[in-house]
Amino acid sequence: MSNPPYAFGDDDTAAERHRMLAYIFAPEIKSFLGRVPPDPGLVIDLGCGPGFTTRLLADTLNAGKTVGLDTSRPFLDIAGSDSNGGLDFVHHDVTRAPFPTGAADVLFCHLLLPHLADPAGALRTWASQLRPAGLLLVDEVSDIQTANPTFRTYLDAAERMLDGIGGDLYVGRRVEQFGRVPGLRRISSRLVKNPVATAACARMFRLNLDAWGPNPHAALSPEDITALGSALDDLATSTATNEIHWQMRQIIFKATTGG
Ligand SMILES: C[S@@+](CC[C@H](N)C(=O)[O-])C[C@H]1O[C@@H](n2cnc3c(N)ncnc32)[C@H](O)[C@@H]1O
């Protein structure tokens, strides 16, 4: 099964959107990483984008080595501009094993599974790339709750768009319902609510909307796109903080076998 194309772009604007993602999600990611034993040998950031999550992993877990894997060369160029001995970025399709790094103590997956055609298959592959007793951390969107009509319009279009290319915006729900994954034992699962300021969210959605362009699956007319874009621009100056809540599913799997 081939993966859907990554529909959110990988140019400088997309990198800027990832900087916002990092700002928005850093607190929930840090609280998740607090559940990992310190000083692992090798940590891998699966689908690392421009490297913001990889640096957060490196700064938080104090691993011997932290490596970001991604298929986007432009993102890897941005990510790797200040890599060092303990931090590296490598081109690799993470749905394929073996990884060029060898097996890891910790694999981290954040906002990647919505873009993969076969999330269950990806988890089976990752199980084979863990050292004995290694951990796979999956941190994915389960729901985004909002009564704001502009956000609702955007989210419905994003869901249709991802669905149309074989992805799943709310893949966290699906992972929660996976039965047994060969090579992995689920040791914890929790739902974490992440309230996001309206202005930050509107700016991020606006960048996404620009990245999709007139995507047929989103089913928005050029007029709809213009109207949604300017409604998001209006929200980008809002001071509201309680209008939209991400629910993140954070699951920890432990390897039952060595990679
Ligand atoms: C939404 S970004 C998330 C980046 C980062 N994990 C974060 O949370 O900020 C998804 C990333 O996954 C990458 N990606 C998509 N499919 C991939 C694959 N099969 N192998 C490696 N990277 C992939 C994309 O290029 C993109 O950088």
Give a brief description:
The chain has eight helices and seven strands; from the N terminus they run H-E-H-E-H-E-E-H-E-H-H-E-H-H-E.
Can you tell me the overall shape?
A: globular
Could you name the CATH class of one domain? Alpha Beta
Q: What is the overall number of helices?
A: 8
Tally of extended strands?
7
* Cα end-to-end separation: 23 Å
Radius of gyration: 18 Å
Name the CATH superfamily assignment of one domain.
Vaccinia Virus protein VP39
**What are the secondary-structure elements, in order, as H or E?**
HEHEHEEHEHHEHHE
User: What small molecules does the structure contain?
Assistant: S-adenosylmethionine
* Strand residue content: 25-35%
Q: What would CATH call the architecture of one domain? A: 3-Layer(aba) Sandwich
